[in-house]
Amino acid sequence: MQWERLTATSFKQAVQDTGVCVLPLGVIEKHSEHLPLGTDCFISHRISCLAAEQEPAVVYPSFFFGQIYEASCFPGTVTIRPQLLFDLLVEVLDNIGRNGFKKIVLYNGHGGNNHLIGFLAQCSLWQQKPYELYIPMRRLTDEGQQEWDAMAEAPYGGHAGEYETALMLGLCPDLVKMERLPEQPARPRGRLKDTPDTYNGIWWYGDYPEHYAGDGSKANESKGQRLVTLSVEYLAQYIGMVKADTVIPALTEEFFERARRISE
User: Does the pTM exceed 0.90?
Assistant: First the structure.
């Protein structure tokens, strides 16, 4: 069920029936020359909707704003001031909770959001909320990952490469322009190799200055359709696990009860 397509009355019933809202996260950024700017959003939202058909949940509209400062040098990228971005995401989550959902799944389609949502998860211990956050740590089951590994022909890269290109061919083939693929695959440039054991925000640009990582030419629609099926299966299973979970809510309540007793 898609949040924005429900009436107010049917929405209230959906909250009671499912108890889980999925928030698909993405960004607007360059994906080489052959994939659309909204690739991450198309993938995360569509996979969420298909999974919610198998394991009923309410899917929030695609959240287009994320951490993508490393692509601000390319046309079409949309970036939000860091504090505003964080506050906006928290406000959206709080409104999902205000509407009755006790469990929210953050389904992330953009690698650059990983640090953001990890920090967000830790911040959930700053103030108790009426909802719990659940963030999948993977995209496929063990069996699904093994199947994809056997299909994949490019053992490197992740941005607009074989994996993302295949998913888009499986979901939105009309938006993929395979004829615009760069002639050569994109391997990491290693321009930070002389600064070992260092993390810096410029690392991605240093390795992939054209915002392309991997070999999209190895993707095809058949691979994409199978990868979509595997992705949906995993997320549907994950939503089912979230519905059944009692451990995280219990631990959260225990934690904040102990925090309240400190001042006694």
Answer: yes
